[in-house]
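Example record for the data management plan.
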Amino acid sequence: MCDARPAMDDGKLARQTADLLDDVAARDLAPGAGSVAAVTAALAAAIAECVARMSTEAAGDADRGAAKALELRERLVLLADANANAYEEARLSLGREAPDDALRDARLGSDLALAAYTPLSIAEVSADAAELAAMLAVGANPEVRADAVVAACLAEAASRGASHLVRINLGMAPEDDRVGTAQDHAERAAAARARALGQTARD
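Corresponding structural encoding:
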């Protein structure tokens, strides 16, 4: 296997992200896709924050936008850790002994249902980040408007991915309201992404 690490050592971003990338690529699925979705949305929120800070003259509420973006990215980072912990608990439930298969399945179903809470929150906050990015794209400094659009696209992908995880985790209870709620968040994010892209098309 080719080791790209030596070639990456000179890059600032490569050094900053190397440990995270190695953790995600390891055979252990934690931190897992849900946490990666949360980090992706946090990066999108950080882009939105930068756009807001660079658009103070072009957009009157840019300062409020920057503060909101900071709040969102901080929440998403916390959710990334929470999701990793919830996933690990669900994984451990697979190895727990039970008197019979029915009890084991009930425990697993309960743990997976609990594990759905964090992806649901990730889907929601990611959609919030997509909507913020789309709003900023309207009044952004033209030099960074494209960045706001990219932020909306990244946040939408994170929300849709997290929504998928909710549906998978609740596979034993497809009628659970959280499945529909997660899908609503993903659709809200998709609408925001479409608005952001439409803004670019009008420029």
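Summary line stored alongside the record: The first helix runs from residue 5 to 8.
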